[in-house]
Amino acid sequence: MSEPASKSLSLSISVVCFNSSVQELHELLQSTLAAIRLLRDSQSLAPVVIYLVDNSEGESLALESFGDLQASCDELTVALKLLHGHGNVGYGAGHNLAIRRIDSDYHLLLNPDLKLDEGSLKAGIAFLQQHGEVHMASPYAQYADGQKQYLCKRYPSVLTFLVRGFFPRFLKTLFATRLARFEMHELNESEPTVGIPIASGCYMLCRSATLKALGGFDENFFLYFEDFDLSLRLTALGKIAYVPAMRITHAGGNAALKGRAHIKMFVQSGIRFFNTHGWRLIRQPR
Predict the structure, then answer these.
(1) Is residue 286 part of a domain?
(2) Residue 143 falls within a domain, yes or no?
(3) pTM: predicted TM-score of the whole model, two decimal places
């Protein structure tokens, strides 16, 4: 069911970064402003707030670094706000600092290592406006080389994570069907799919009221699986949709390639996730 038209749509955005380069954030902000411009051209839009949440130790970022974007921000009535000095509180907790401040219709949760296609916000918000039962939209994502990235997932098993994260390539081929099922390779790329179980936290376009009702992310997840947990809790209030017309380019990441500290965090968060939502050791996700 479509939502009733409102006088002016409101949008807020948060980006959580940790030792991110100014160039990476500049590219993200440039693409975000271009997407806001197209959205504003399509409908009435209230002033937009973009929160840069710097989880770095110390205060390594400054808004002055993005001064060349200020003219575009002023034209589009976009305010950049920097939240810093809180230290490395974790990815979900960083976004929560922004979520507690927002009073918008829709809130976009972003990683710093991506770029939005110009039409991404227009397509995603139009879909949410037309489907009141959907509370989160997940985009089509690709790597810089154009290879598709699978952001939508089914409920995982421990075996699936071991294969996906730690098995060598030649062994992964033995589990290709399992991995494709987990990553929902069968999703239609020409039209949206409603009823996605889990969406990646690199880009989550959500109803702000839903995020607030959930209390945002569970801050017991420092890094990894906070998006899985949020997705599953959100589906108690509304549905998640895959909207392929909403497109991004994402650098992506693999915990197993980032060293022992990330592997340890991945395992700890995985144990917390399964303890919270239920263990599935081997059984293929349905």
Answers:
(1) no
(2) yes
(3) 0.95
